[in-house]
């Protein structure tokens, strides 16, 4: 078993759209169907700040909720690199973070 691992975090909003579906759905399809990554989780935030400093939050007074999402996955570095190449142009620049380490 290869002990090297890459963890990737992708920062989105619920309202982000892909070509045919939400961007989250398209990324999950890419991760599961095309690259079969080892582990994936999607976190839905209760609040967050956008690039312009606007607050995105869930409360009863807002009719249009656009909450922050974080998609996190891990796999061997070669698989993660292939996924990140496929994400190029799909995810806004600066919204992907990678962490490399050793599995324990």
Question: What would you say about this model in short?
Answer:
This protein has 104 residues and is an alpha+beta fold. Helices cover 22% and strands 36% of the residues. The strands form two sheets. Strands 2-5-1-6 form a four-stranded antiparallel β-sheet.
Q: Kindly report the CATH topology.
A: Alpha-Beta Plaits
Low-confidence stretches: none
Main sheet specs: 4 strands, antiparallel
Overall geometry: globular
The gyration radius over C-alpha positions equals 15 Å
- Helix/strand structural class: alpha+beta
| CATH architecture grouping | 2-Layer Sandwich
Numbering strands along the chain, what is their spatial order in the largest sheet? Answer: 2-5-1-6
The number of domains: 1
Helical percentage: 10-25%
Question: Strand tally, please?
Answer: 6
- State the separation between the terminal residues, measured CA to CA: 11 Å
Strand content: 35-45%
Q: Note the run of SSEs as H and E.
A: EHEEEEHE
Enumerate how many helices there are, as a single number: 2
Reading off the top of the CATH hierarchy, the class is best stated as Alpha Beta
Mean pLDDT: 88
Q: What does this 3D model show about the protein?
A:
- The chain is α+β, with helices and mostly antiparallel strands.
- It has one domain: Alpha-Beta Plaits.
- Helix content is 22%, strand content 36%.
- The protein has two helices and six strands; from the N terminus they run E-H-E-E-E-E-H-E.
- The strands form two sheets. A four-stranded antiparallel β-sheet has the order 2-5-1-6. Strands 3-4 form a two-stranded antiparallel ribbon.
- A hairpin with a 5-residue loop joins strand 3 and strand 4.
- The model has no long low-confidence stretch (mean pLDDT 88).
């Amino acid at each position: 078993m290869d002990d090297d691992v890459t963890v990737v975090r992708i920062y989105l909003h619920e309202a982000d759209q892909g070509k045919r579906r939400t961007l989250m759905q398209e990324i999950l399809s890419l991760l599961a169907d095309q690259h079969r990554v080892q582990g994936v989780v999607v976190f839905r935030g209760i609040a967050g700040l956008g690039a312009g400093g606007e607050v995105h939050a869930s409360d009863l007074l807002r009719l249009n909720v656009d909450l922050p999402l974080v998609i996190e996955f891990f796999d061997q570095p070669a698989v993660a690199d292939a996924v990140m190449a496929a994400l190029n142009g799909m995810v806004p620049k600066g919204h992907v973070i990678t962490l490399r380490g050793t599995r324990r």
